[in-house]
Amino acid sequence: MNRMRPSLTFLGGVGTVTGSKYLLDTGTTRVLLECGLFQGLSNLRRRNWAEPPVDWHSVDAVVLTHAHLDHSGYLPVLARQGWSGPVYATPGTARLAQIVLADSAHLQEEDARYAAEGGWSKHATPRPLYDTADAARACELFVPVPHGEITRITRDVALTFGRAGHILGSAWAQLDVAGTDRRLVHSGDMGRAEHPLLRPPEPRPACDALLLESTYGDRLRHDETSGDMLASAITRTVERGGSVLVPAFAVDRTEVLLTALRDLTRTARIPDVPIVVDSPMALACLRIYREAIAQRWPEIRPGLAVDALDTRGLVEVQTAEESKHWNKPSSPAIIVSASGMATGGRVLHHLKDLLPDARNTVAIVGFAAEGTRARQLVEGARQVKIHGDYVPVRAEVVALDAFSAHADSDELTAWAAGAAGAVATGAAGTAAPHTCYVVHGEEHSSQAFAERLRRELNWTAVVPREGERVLV
Ligand SMILES: [Zn+2]
Predict the structure, then answer these.
(1) What is the DSSP letter of 178?
(2) Which end of the chain, N or C, is less packed with Cβ atoms under 10 Å?
């Protein structure tokens, strides 16, 4: 027990919801927890290109809690630099990450090409951050680790994943450092008990240091009205002859939305119109979700109907030609397309065509980060810039954040406390960590949530600074 304590350095995902990267250094080995891409504001995105704060070749292993880009999307940069793994993730995450990373590489290539052709880039010769080959190399590095299995990942670090209920494959991660008795737990992104397809999050284990996400750290949600709001938005849009566009995260949001639309269709609460999923990536993920349901993966809700994702009127758009057809639908339709924050992908073409017409509606169903088009729309922008052109916003915009895959402030607090309603200062609930680091949230949200943990649980809770190093 006389070994030095491990350290933790915050390399991203603090004061922002993107770019998650936390480096655990035991003095013997180094584990990079999350390898996320910065997204949104341009000063954040530029950081993907910056000189790395550490030599990635000194990292012995990467651990990913789930497949979302803000947790996994920087991995191909490491692969491009010749880093050769391993990357530990659950089997579901490993499967989904293949799709997510390939799509990200494709978007990087496309953006660079667009920028070069259009001449509107600030760079003389725009190049992608990484390409398809880098993403493929990154995917070869995955080592699947099922939830609940203790796995030695370096000479002195053992990993255990627990269910997080956020998206398929999602996990919280427990890292035990041998010879020191120190334990770090990272919430990853925390899901909600009400996820229609996934089992709820598993309770938090006791630990010395806790990394806790705070995407909705300062917000509560009112689920009762979300289905009603979606139903009425669709109904009034169709009545005025318009279409509804839903920019949706390809992973999980599309599935949750299809489940909701299936219910609304079955109970005749929305008109019978085509429900178009226009995103090859969303469709690839949909296939994995269907497989998970059919094969009864352990994280799938028991008793879930095998056809839970087979919504009436579903149109699965594969080719770019078919996609163009749906850009300006001749009669009302519901179009679900990625990316969720409208930062890239086919949804941009739909926005260009649908935003200028007041009959249409754009429904934002997930968290919209600062600097993204989805955020601008939620905040009432009268125009948004797409591929160098300003597009007028005349369509109705509705925000339905109850569809988000994140726990809200009450749910995060309950999970942190160790048991619903338990106060973790003593005997009740799981013992308080030595320190809780509030991460993965915009500054105001993280600060408000840290304050709540201090006030309600009497915890030492801090919002770490970018680049800060602490002892675990
Ligand atoms: Zn996520």
Answers:
(1) T
(2) N
Task: Map out the domains of the chain with their CATH numbers.
Answer: 7-219+405-471 (3.60.15.10), 223-403 (3.40.50.10890)
pLDDT tens-digit profile of 383-409?
Answer: 999 988 999 999 999 998 777 778 889
To the question of pTM greater than 0.85 for the whole model, the response is yes
Tell me how far the alpha carbon of residue 103 lies from the centroid of ligand 1, in angstroms. Answer: 16
Task: Tell me the CA–centroid distance for residue 89 and ligand 1, in Å.
Answer: 14
Q: What is the pLDDT of residues 322-348, one digit of tens each?
A: 888 888 888 999 999 988 788 888 899
Read off the pLDDT band of 426 (50, 70, 90): very low
Strand 396-399 with 142-144, pairing: unpaired
Find the 252 Cα to ligand 1 centroid distance in Å: 9
- What is the distance in A from the centroid of ligand 1 to the CA of 13? 12
Name the residue among 54, 60, 16, 8 with its Cα closest to residue 37: 16
Ligand 1 centroid – CA 121 distance (Å): 29
